[in-house]
């Protein structure tokens, strides 16, 4: 058995434009539209709206007392972060939506040898095969899965396993037999 299996996990390389910052200040609300950003920061009192889609970011920082809201819980939403990442934001969605959010949200840290801090409730799946993920230093609740080189979890944390299994956007029809 290869105990270093994660070290062989292949992550795609990506580049981001150097002048594409998104900074959300106190009392502001911005949408994290699919695309590429060199830096994303949400300051205390700011709100980041996260729709479904794929985003590539150089570094991302969600400050304490910042907020995020997922507009399409369960829809596939992937954020790729190349370097540093800290999540200290409060999720504004209702607790009943945490399972759905975790089912569709994936956060991928491409950096090597970094520490990713998750200091508030998070619903989602974290992929950080070359870095450490530190969970639940202040809020003790996590929904999803963590796939990392090193995982540090606070002793009183509650982690609820939710597979990454996004809701399909494909419409379907139900046949009622001979009707």
| First-last Cα distance | 56 Å
Number of H/I helices: 1
Number of DSSP strand runs: 14
**Residue share in helices?**
under 10%
The whole-angstrom Rg is 17 Å
Strand order of the largest sheet: 5-7-10-12-11-8
Note poorly predicted spans: 1-6
Q: Please report which band the strand proportion falls in: under 5%, 5-15%, 15-25%, 25-35%, 35-45% or over 45%.
A: over 45%
Global geometry: globular
Average pLDDT works out at 88
Can you summarize the main beta sheet? Answer: 6 strands, parallel, barrel
What structural class do you assign from the helix and strand content? mainly beta
* Helix-strand topology string: EEEEEEEEEHEEEEE
Key phrases:
46% strand, 4% helix, mainly beta, 179 residues, 1 helix, four-stranded parallel sheet, six-stranded parallel beta barrel
Describe this structure in words.
The structure is a single chain. This protein is mostly beta strands and 179 residues long. The chain is built from 1 helix and 14 strands; from the N terminus they run βββββββββαβββββ. It has a 6-stranded parallel beta barrel.
Topology:
Elements: E1 21-24, E2 29-31, E3 35-42, E4 47-50, E5 53-62, E6 67-70, E7 77-81, E8 85-87, E9 90-91, H1 98-104, E10 105-109, E11 115-118, E12 122-135, E13 141-153, E14 158-161
Parallel strand pairs: 1-3, 2-4, 3-5, 4-6, 5-7, 5-8, 6-9, 7-10, 8-11, 10-12, 11-12, 12-13, 13-14
């Amino acid at each position: 058995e290869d105990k270093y299996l994660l070290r062989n996990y292949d992550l795609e390389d990506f580049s981001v434009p150097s002048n594409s910052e998104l900074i959300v200040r106190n009392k502001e609300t911005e949408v994290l539209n699919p695309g590429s950003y060199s830096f994303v920061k949400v300051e205390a009192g700011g709100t980041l709206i996260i729709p479904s889609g794929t985003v590539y970011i150089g570094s991302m920082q969600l400050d304490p007392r910042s907020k995020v809201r997922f507009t399409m819980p369960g829809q596939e939403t992937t954020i790729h972060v190349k370097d540093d990442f800290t999540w200290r934001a409060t999720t504004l969605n209702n607790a009943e939506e945490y399972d759905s959010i975790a089912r569709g949200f994936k956060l991928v840290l491409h950096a090597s040898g970094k520490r990713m801090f998750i200091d508030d409730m998070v619903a989602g799946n974290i992929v950080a095969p070359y870095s450490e993920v530190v969970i639940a230093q202040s809020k003790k609740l996590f929904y999803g899965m963590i796939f990392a080189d090193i995982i540090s979890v606070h002793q009183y944390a509650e982690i609820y396993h939710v597979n990454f299994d996004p809701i399909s956007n494909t419409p379907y029809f139900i046949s009622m037999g001979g009707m």
